[in-house]
Amino acid sequence: MATVCGAGVQGRAQIQALARVRELKRVFVFDKDEGRARQLAGTLAGEMSADVGVVRDLAEAVRKSDVCITCTTARRFFLEKHMLAPGTFVAAVGADNPEKQEIDPQLMASSMVVVDVLEQCATIGDLHHALTAGVMTTADVHAELGEVVAGKKPGRTNPNDITIFDSTGMALQDVAAAAAVYTRACDLGRGLRVRLGDLT
After folding, report:
1. Within 13 A of 194's CA, how many CA atoms are on the CB side?
2. Helix (H, G, I), strand (E, B), or coil: what is residue 153?
3. Domain CATH code at residue 10
4. What is the rounded distance in angstroms from the CA atom of residue 1 to the CA atom of residue 143?
5. Angle between the 9-21 and 34-47 helix axes, to the nearest 10 degrees?
6. Helices (H) and strands (E) in the chain, counts
7. pLDDT digits over 98-137, tens only?
8. Rounded to two decimals, what is the model's pTM?
9. Residue 173 to residues 66, 103, 167: CA-CA distances in angstroms?
10. pLDDT per residue over 51-64, tens digit each?
């Protein structure tokens, strides 16, 4: 089961991506704007076989979930340690500037934290708030994502660990996504070819 916090375009994309790598039986959608949550739940229900529903009680939904994705514009944390069951994975996507915050610093400090780019997350991610609160140092961060992918550091080592991926976005991910879209378009014979001179 999965909970997505934030019913915007990013929330939809995150659940779609998760469904490509995990079999989802149930998806909970949470948003401060219940109308937006209902709209996203309806869209997702039409796209996947999972049972998709709107929730008002975030803590109850998260407690039942294996994965929680946060992709909001919140400026004060809303995800707290007591809400999560052991072994939960949190993808913290929304905090991409110093004013945004989704994760309680105490939850960050008690979890295995993986970041996309350490220096950037220390400046603008949820890690930034945990550092400011004095409950973590950068040395407490388990790894950067690239280190896990390359096998330089392990991922989860204990099934009961709460793992948080603090994602602030990085140019390399954008380039990789653009390359994948370009390759797919070429394979399908789609798109429009333009010369660089035509763009000026």
Report:
1. 7
2. coil
3. 3.40.50.720
4. 26
5. 30
6. 8, 10
7. 999 999 999 999 999 999 999 999 999 999 999 999 999 9
8. 0.85
9. 25, 23, 11
10. 999 999 999 999 99
